[in-house]
Amino acid sequence: MIKKLKLIPLVLLFTLIFTMTASAAGIGLSVDGSVKTENLEVTEGRTLISGETLESMGFNVSSSGKVVEVKNSKVSFEFTLDTNKVKVNDINLELDTKIYTKHGEVYLPLRFILETLGYEISWDGENSRVLANKKEEIVYPITIEGAEGTYTVYDQPKTVVSLAPSVTETIFALGAGDKLQGRTQYCNYPQEAESIQVVGSMTEPSIEMVVDISPDMIIAATHYKEEVLNKFEEAGIEVIAKPSPETIEEMYEYTLKLGAIMNKNYEARALVSSMKSKVQMTNMKLSNIKQKPSVYYVVGTGQWGEYTAGSDTFVSEMIAIAGGENAASDVTGWKYSIEKLIDKDPDVIFGGSFNIDTMTTGENYSILSAIQDKNYYTVNEDIFSRPSPRLIDEGLKLLIDILHPEISEELDF
Questions:
Q1: CA 302, CA 366: separation in Å to the nearest integer?
Q2: CA distance 295 to 75
Q3: What share of the chain in percent tops pLDDT 70?
Q4: Comparing 142-261 with 294-408, is the CATH topology the same?
Q5: How many other C-beta atoms are found inside a 10 Å radius of the C-beta of residue 32?
Q6: Are 51 and 104 in contact (CB under 8 A)?
Q7: Residue 128 pLDDT
Q8: CATH 3.60.15.10 holds for 142-261
C-alpha cells in the first residue's frame, strides 16, 4: 500500500509541464487527502523523474550502454539515452521528448511511465495542486458497445481475423500481430500484415475461408454486412462489430479497449500516452501561432463529386492540432461541392495522389489559389482515412511539416 501511495502522487506532477520554464519544486500534491511535495527535473515543457527516485518507488533501474531499463514485475521500459525511443514490453514507441543524463543521473518521462502503469493526472489550479488518481483497470469480462448492441469478451482471443485496416494496424501497434490469422485485401500496413492470409474485402469476406481458419474472434469496423457477421456467429465464432472512431478521443478509447481484449493493457496505455503527449507538445509549440492557413483535405473529386473531411471528423481535428483551419468546417460528414470549394479558396490542399492529380489537371480547379501557387501536397491517404495510431505517429508530423515547417524542426518526434 505504501508503494501505491508513492506512485500516485508522482503521476500528477506531470500536469505542471505546460510551460517551458515551470519549476517542479514546491508543487502541491494531493494524494488521498494527503499533501506532499517532490523535486523533479522540468525541461522543454515536460517533467522527468530521476532513476534514483524510481528505484525508491520499487522499480529496478539498470543501464547497458545507452539503454536504460526500468521494470517491475509487470512491465519493462527500455529507454535509449539522448533519443525519444522506448520499448515497452514488446512494442517500440517514439515519445515527444528525449531521455538524458544530468550530473550522472538519468531522467525519464514521468507522465509516460505512470500513465502506462494506469494512473491519471489532473491539475487543481485553484489550490496550485496536482491531483492523483488510479484509474480502474479494464479487466475481463470486457464490454464493447457496437452499432447492433453490446458485445462481451470473457477471455483473450488466441487467434483473430480482422475485417478493417484500422483494426489490423492497431492490433499490430499493440504488439499483438501474432494473433492475426486473417485480414482484408485492404489491410496493407504494417508490412508484416502482408504475410497474413487475405479473406476478402470488408463487406464481402469469404465465409468459407474465415470458417476454415476458425479464429477465436472476428473484429469488424464500420464497413461490414450484418448478415455476413451473423453467419460467423452461427458458426460459433465470437464477433465484435463497432463503428470506427469518429474522433481522436474515441480512437484513444478504442485502442485501450482493444489492448485490454488482447491482454495488452500496459502496451495500450503506453501507446495512448505517447500519442496524447505528441498532441499536447504540438499544442504548446503552436500556441503563439497567429497565422493559421485554411486547409482542404481532398477525399474525392472530379466526376465523382467533391468529398472532404467536415467539421465532425478526426481529420478536421488533425488539421486544427497541426495549426490549420479546416476550409470545410461549414459542413459535417464528408460530402462537399465544387461551388463551396471555390468560394472557400483554401490556402493549402492535401490528399492522395489520384485526387491531387485530378485537381491539378482539371480546368474546374485552376482558379483555386492553392493550385495556382502550388500549395498542394500528395500524402498517403491511408494515414488519414484510418483512425489508428499511425494517424498521430505519422500524420500529425506530416501535417506540421506542411503547415508550419519552422515549428516542425522544434519537435522531438
A1: 13
A2: 42
A3: 89
A4: yes
A5: 10
A6: no
A7: 64
A8: no
CATH fold of 294-408: Rossmann fold (3.40.50)
| 313 closest CA partner among 297, 338, 334 | 334
Dist CA 11 CA 113 (whole Å): 8
Q: What is the DSSP string of 192-246?
A: GGGGSPB-B-SSSB-HHHHHHH--SEEEE-SS--HHHHHHHHHTT-EEEE-PPPS
CA gap 241, 223 in Å, rounded: 9
- Of the candidates 355, 342, 310, 316, which has an alpha carbon nearest to the alpha carbon of residue 328? 310
- Strand-pairing partners, residue 146, are 149
DSSP conformational letter for 301: -
Residue range 82-107: average pLDDT? 95
The sign of the dihedral angle between the CA atoms of 48, 138, 264, 245 is negative
The whole-number pLDDT of residue 190 equals 97
Only one residue has cell 474546374, namely 364
> In the structure grid, which three cell numbers stand for residue 9, read together?
502522487
- One-letter amino acid for residue 295 of the chain: V
Considering only CA atoms, which of 388, 331, 353 is closest in space to residue 162? Answer: 388
Task: Summarize pLDDT for 131-181 with one digit per residue, the tens.
Answer: 667 889 999 999 999 988 899 999 999 999 999 999 999 999 999 999 999
Residues 291, 297: Cα–Cα separation, whole Å:
19
In angstroms, the CA 19 to CA 27 distance is 14
Instruction: Kindly state the average pLDDT of the residues 253-281.
Output: 97
C-alpha neighbours within 13 Å on the C-beta side of residue 198: 10
pTM of the predicted model as reported, rounded to 2 decimal places? 0.91
Measured between alpha carbons, how far is 128 from 47 in angstroms, rounded to an integer?
16
Asked if residues 99 and 68 have their Cβ atoms less than 8 Å apart, the reply is yes
Residues 6+ apart with CB under 8 A from 125: none
Collect all residues with Cβ–Cβ distance below 8 Å to 184 and sequence separation of at least 6.
162, 163, 164, 165, 168, 198, 199, 200, 201, 202, 205
Mean of all residue pLDDT scores within the chain: 89
Q: Which of 319, 278, 317 is nearest to 404 (CA)?
A: 319
Q: What is the CATH number of domain 2-134?
A: 3.30.457.10
- Around Cβ 56, how many Cβ atoms within 10 Å? 11
Structural domain spans, the chain: 2-134, 142-261, 294-408
CA pair distance 32, 356, nearest whole angstrom: 56
Q: Taking CA 318 as the corner, what is the angle to CA 369 and CA 97, rounded to the nearest 5 degrees?
A: 120
